[in-house]
Amino acid sequence: MGGVSTADRAERVPKQDRSRATRQRLLEAAVACLAEHGWAGSTVSVVAERAGVSRGAAQHHFPTREDLFTAAVEYVAEERSTALRALFPEGARADDRRAVIAALVDLYTGPLFRAALHLWVAASNEEQLRPRVTELESRVGRETHRIAVDLLGADESRPGVRETVQGLLDMARGLGLANLLTDDGARRERVVAQWAALLDEALG
Amino acid sequence: MGGVSTADRAERVPKQDRSRATRQRLLEAAVACLAEHGWAGSTVSVVAERAGVSRGAAQHHFPTREDLFTAAVEYVAEERSTALRALFPEGARADDRRAVIAALVDLYTGPLFRAALHLWVAASNEEQLRPRVTELESRVGRETHRIAVDLLGADESRPGVRETVQGLLDMARGLGLANLLTDDGARRERVVAQWAALLDEALG
């Protein structure tokens, strides 16, 4: 037992690592907060408390509310993209396509999508937020498109293939929206099965 | 020019019609307000002023904020459904299908969708709003699905056809979301053209 004091422990962890861990805790707390309470209920103070970090430390990492929440959505989106690629380490194989499509749709049904949606909708009325979120949305959208093309083994040099994949991701976002107020899982599963069959045929 | 006093004019218009016209002005102002300012900026007072109606008259028609905004989204959705059916009075004809799909997607790119989206997202965090909006969403969604099936001439007795149409409407909602912060019209047109071709084939 004896125990190790906080000061002792802090000394053993390099400063840079501690700073990175604090940043990560703040980002994860910010996404959870946005998903649960929406933009109006999400401030730097609320997130700092949730993350167990002082308000000053939070502001050291993220000087403004906009900095914190756009960084948070981007961070979690990157984490999810990495996890998605890791699910299919072999990349595209025709027999995996339905599993890939289901996994792509899953990107839009969890807390990250809820959080992103709150940020998105708030940005449509707040001039301070709008350019940041527009830029973030386009960056994350491009990356998701790249992953989809890779994992589906889609040949974008063929006419229509690029738009086929884009339409799939638009449908996935629409399914995410349909899941916002109620659990739409059973219907979603049937729609995804049918669209996966259509896509499989269209992608050849 | 001589002119007719407001009192004279009021007397000639039956009271019931005036009441209906006031109600309609409030509903249209409520949707415009929600689309422009979001839920946080949308109150009964703001809408009453925009509609040129006294706050008391507004509250006579709509006792609560929730009453006003759910009624407004429902009213405008019905107007748009009627207009959509009127665009294709002949109903389903195979060569019209791409036009029907484009018109269905258009339902989700204007002020009504923006307004509905604000209400939807607000409802996900507000217990008072949530059951009302859930019920409204399901009613409007069912009606849109019926119109889509009719206008596309889709035979839902064939396996997969129901889910094909549902997926199309989910894609349309996703395209609406992608149009929230930027004008996504050019990309959307290409996606819709490609999916209209795929869906035309799938629906036979």
TrEMBL record, chains A, B:
<feature type="compositionally biased region" description="Basic and acidic residues">
    <location>
        <begin position="8"/>
        <end position="20"/>
    </location>
</feature>
<dbReference type="Pfam" id="PF00440">
    <property type="entry name" value="TetR_N"/>
</dbReference>
<dbReference type="InterPro" id="IPR009057">
    <property type="entry name" value="Homeodomain-like_sf"/>
</dbReference>
<dbReference type="InterPro" id="IPR050109">
    <property type="entry name" value="HTH-type_TetR-like_transc_reg"/>
</dbReference>
<dbReference type="GO" id="GO:0003700">
    <property type="term" value="F:DNA-binding transcription factor activity"/>
</dbReference>
<dbReference type="GO" id="GO:0000976">
    <property type="term" value="F:transcription cis-regulatory region binding"/>
</dbReference>
<keyword id="KW-0238">DNA-binding</keyword>
<feature type="domain" description="HTH tetR-type">
    <location>
        <begin position="20"/>
        <end position="80"/>
    </location>
</feature>
<dbReference type="InterPro" id="IPR001647">
    <property type="entry name" value="HTH_TetR"/>
</dbReference>
<feature type="region of interest" description="Disordered">
    <location>
        <begin position="1"/>
        <end position="21"/>
    </location>
</feature>
<protein>
    <submittedName>
        <fullName>TetR family transcriptional regulator</fullName>
    </submittedName>
</protein>
<feature type="DNA-binding region" description="H-T-H motif">
    <location>
        <begin position="43"/>
        <end position="62"/>
    </location>
</feature>
